[in-house]
Amino acid sequence: MMVFLKIVSPPALPLAGRSRRQRRIMANGDGFPVFLPKEVKNIKDPFARTLAQRIVRIPVPLQVGNFKGCVMSSCIKPIVQQHDKSPVVLLHCFDSSCLEWRRTYPLLEQTSLETWAIDVLGWGFSDLEKLPPCDAASKRHHLFELWKAYIKRPMILVGPSLGATVAVDFTAAYPEAVDKLVLINANAYSEGTGALKDLPKSIAYVGVKLLKSFPLRLLANVLAFSSPMSENIDWTNIGRLHCQMPWWEDAMVDFMISGGYNVASHIKHISHKTLVVCSENDQIVSNQLSVKLLCELQNAIFREVPDSGHLPHVENPKQFVKLISEFARGKIN
User: What residue stretches are annotated with the AB hydrolase-1 domain (predicted)?
Assistant: First the structure.
């Protein structure tokens, strides 16, 4: 079979090897893009630091509600585009960023899979100074417009936790854009943001500020990972880095009062081949929900990742990448 390759972007160069224009763009110190919060320089995790240097913004046309314009959308682009294979597109958890894939992304590239890591609208590191709506419908439409402009063929869509909900929501609306699904510790049965949608905006902003706080984020990391405290502290800083973006509070409040996601009714209609993944030691989402998901999907298979908590792609990336690689190549049935 003839393989067609398209070079998308060159491998990351050290700052000294870049042009003057590139150095202006990458002027935030230590080779990080200038649009990242300055706190990125305090991160110690070498995988996060390396992946952060590869974050780019790409223009995505968007027309939702009263918003019409172009969103400079943050993502990790593949070095090589392979038109004979379905690309792997990585979403992230609730209120997170593409840095969540810091330990998995380089391993996926080593398997020669074309891999994208995309920041969902309203989270991550996009330029949202002119803020579009950040409700579920807008997030879905933004992902579709990005797919239509850059990916352009059915993808293997990977979503952990709430990212699995995003993936189900997207697949139900745009089935032609998806080849296969990977749903990890899926939080697909939650009923939106519940009573939070009825909060007065002033109270919603107080809640969002609490969500951003270091103690609450650290507690979430302790529940998610069985790691030493020093590592959990650094991972907490990684997980809340996007919260330093100037638009983050407004985007979170907009999502909260919009009602969030409610996709339970879509699940039984999804016919795409789906890999349902759960972790051996998930303390956040019950494995029973993964079993329920397996039973309701039309064409699903189930795998458990050992020695991992809520985010197996962070704690056990080698085992996780093995699953993704085999599933992408049709070796898991």
Answer: 88-322
Q: SS3 for 200-247, per residue?
A: CHHHHHHHHHHHHCHHHHHHHHHHHCCCCHHHHHHHHHHHCHHHHCCC
**Is 84 a known active-site residue?**
no
- Name residue 122's amino acid: G
Annotated catalytic, 83?
no
Indicate which residue of 73, 161, 190, 308 is catalytic. Answer: 161
**Active-site annotation holds for 282:** yes
Read off the pLDDT of residues 287-333 as tens digits, 9 standing for 90 and up. Answer: 899 999 999 999 999 999 998 889 999 999 999 999 999 999 998 87
pTM of the model: 0.89
Give the C-alpha separation, 183 to 193, whole Å.
20
Query: CA 212, CA 215: separation in Å to the nearest integer?
Result: 9
Strand pairing report for 80-82 and 115-118: unpaired
